[in-house]
Amino acid sequence: MKKILAIETSCDDTSVAVIDTDYNVHANLISSQPEHDLFGGVVPELASRVHLKNIVHLTEAALKKAQITFDDIDAIAVSVNPGLIGALLVGVSYAKSLAYGLGLPLIAVNHMVGHVAVNMIEHKDEMVAPYLVLVVSGGHTELAHFTAEREFEIVGRTIDDAAGEAFDKSAKLLGLGYPGGPIIDKLAKQGDSSYQSFTIGMKKKDNYNFSFSGLKTAIRNFIESHSRDELEEHKYDIAASVQTGIVDNLLYKTLNYLDKNRIKKLVLAGGVSANSELRSRLETETAKRNVKLIYPSLKYCTDNAAMIGAAAVEKLHRKEFSDLDLNAFSTKGFRIL
Ligand code: KG4
Ligand code: ZN
Predict the structure, then answer these.
(1) How far, in Å, CA of 15 to CA of 87, rounded?
(2) Closest CA to 212 of 157, 283, 277
(3) Closest CA to 74 of 111, 107, 26
(4) pLDDT tens, 95-138?
(5) What gap in Å lies between CA 101 and CA 243, rounded to an integer?
(6) CA-to-CA separations, 155 to 27, 179, 257, 270, in angstroms, rounded
(7) Going by C-beta distance under 8 Å and a sequence separation of 6 or more, which residues neighbour residue 332?
(8) Using CA positions, which residue lies closest to atom 10 of ligand 1?
(9) Does 39 have pLDDT greater than 90?
(10) Which residues contact 214 (CB under 8 A, 6 or more apart)?
(11) What span, in angstroms and rounded, lies between the C-alpha atoms of 27 and 269?
């Protein structure tokens, strides 16, 4: 059994993990960056600088947590795309210096593949194709149909905002803070989602693409036509209505694809898969259809380095290593480059 040191710096969380080739996680440390709170969103250059400050100490702490030293590591894995380019470059440069200094193989990981692969940690035996993956993060909303191991087709994607972005932008419009997803999720628990309908999607279109820009406009119009007092009084109901609007959108296309293609397994991936309404409504809908639903526990939904390590396991088995001229890319999607 080999051990991988995995590094994730694609956005505003610095994370370092130690995972072995049996998918046991020995450490998965995440240092989030409160430095951005003042600005109501992630400031890219600031993110890079904070990664640079944290990465060495976090790596030392991860090794300590795993009760090992660099001598026990067999490979270095790092996320190379998609993400903020300056932030990714910190992780990639550090990973390269470790691989060079320690004489270890270097494994490049696509961040989105990491979000899917994290399910191997808790559901290894069930992650057998065919299955449909609903990838919902801050930058991506995609339906990926896996027909075999590592073979997939993107059958639907957002044509404007991503689901996480829809949560974040709605929260910003409502003055609720950042990141919007967890805040709306929490408020919604005390609200009534029938208060206002924000279910504006692409229901009539005969495809599996998503759109959230109509919802954003509806929220803006709603805010402009209500007083501050009314908005404050109904804060919980509005959060519940927004959340239901976003989840309705996701469910409609996902369930449609499952039904039409008779797929019996659905996998959730990405930060928005932490959403309680998305999880519980999908539990109900998949049970009705006899579809197996797989999702990560909360700590593995949002960005973390264990997911990068999980995606690297297969690459280590196949000896798919990168040279030391490896670069980082901001390119969106599931492929490196
Ligand atoms: O996957 P992730 O950590 O980073 C990216 O790769 O983008 O996803 C971050 C996104 C943010 O938009 C955040 O608001 C959303 O995931 N998110 C949630 C929840 N927790 C995080 N959205 C809805 N409900 C949640 N509980
Ligand atoms: Zn992510």
Answers:
(1) 12
(2) 157
(3) 107
(4) 999 999 999 999 999 999 999 999 999 999 999 999 999 999 99
(5) 48
(6) 35, 28, 9, 17
(7) 81, 82, 139, 140
(8) 138
(9) no
(10) 200, 201
(11) 21
pLDDT digits (tens, 9 = 90+) for 303-318: 999 999 999 999 999 9
- Residue 121: other Cβ atoms inside 10 A: 21
| Residue 165, token pair as written in the block | 């972005």
CA distance linking residue 213 with residue 304, whole number of Å: 28
Residues 243 and 252: their CA atoms lie apart, in Å, by 14
* Predicted structure pTM score: 0.96
Examine the pLDDT at 201 and tell me if it is beyond 70. no
> Beta strand pairing status for 151-157 and 13-20?
unpaired
Is the C-beta atom of 179 inside 6 A of ligand 1? yes
**Distance of alpha carbon 143 from alpha carbon 267, whole angstroms:** 10
- Specify whether the CB–CB gap between 9 and 93 falls below 8 A: no
Q: With both helix axes pointing from N to C terminus, report the angle between 276-289 and 235-261 in degrees, rounded to the nearest 10.
A: 30
Does residue 138 line the site of ligand 1, with CB under 6 A? yes
CB-based burial, 263-281: b 16+ in 10 Å, e otherwise: bebbbbbbbbbbbebbbeb
Residue 181 beta carbon below 6 angstroms from any ligand 1 atom = yes
Positive or negative CA dihedral for 288, 293, 299, 303? Answer: negative
Q: Is the CB of 13 under 6 A from ligand 1?
A: no
Tokens at 318, concatenated: 């196949």
The residue type at 199: T
Inter-residue contact 169 to 180 (CB < 8 Å): yes
Ligand 1, atom 16, residue with closest C-alpha: 271
36-50, 98-112, 250-264: which has the minimum mean pLDDT? 36-50
Residues 6+ apart with CB under 8 A from 176: 183, 184, 187, 235, 239
Calculate how far, in angstroms, residue 167's C-alpha sits from the geometric centre of ligand 1: 8
